[in-house]
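Sync notes, pocket subgroup
Present: LS, DG
LS reminded everyone that the earlier model was apo-only. Rerun requested with nickel (II) ion included. Inputs:
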Amino acid sequence: MTVKSILTEPNKLLRRVSKSVEKVDKEEQSLMDDMLETMYAANGIGLAAIQIGVPKRIIVMDLSRDKEKKEPRYFVNPVIQNKNSEKATYEEGCLSVPNQFAEIDRPSSCDVQYLDYYGKKQTLHAEGLLATCIQHEMDHLEGILFIDHLSKLKKSMIIKKLSKLKSNQIVI
Ligand code: GNR
Ligand code: NI
């Protein structure tokens, strides 16, 4: 397992639409292992493959707060159904939009169909933070970031800040 570097906005790759996985093979499992390791190292609760530059429809997640009891979840080719018309608001952050946070409204619950780590079909009813996180990650698969849900002004302020930070970064 390897900790990969996480792409940050602005980066065109983050805007790519990810491709469906035909078969969950060793290559995909190894990618999921790396994604999980990368997510834990960055203290995130979710990660989409495109965030480490791989445009495949794969998401990993772990909402457990306890570092001793890991609860990794793997979603391949996830599809969301039955979005609740009721909305829930969470303060969201994103590893690809470092140090920026904003309240975002999303359907408060939904069902998800996906393939697991072994390529087995699964369905899940998601509520609360799980529902929010899955929808945030699904957005990544479509090239959408949480800041795209904000007003033009708020979004451009955040992108400006991140661009400035990037131009100050020295690459070794
Ligand atoms: O670590 C993360 N926390 C988070 C908090 C609220 C809503 C969504 C998230 S996902 C984010 C990790 C990330 O960027 N996943 O794509
Ligand atoms: Ni994110």
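DG: Residues 94-96, 136, 140 surround nickel (II) ion (ligand 2) (CB under 6 Å).
LS: Residues 116 and 135 are 17 Å apart (CA to CA).
Action: DG to write up.
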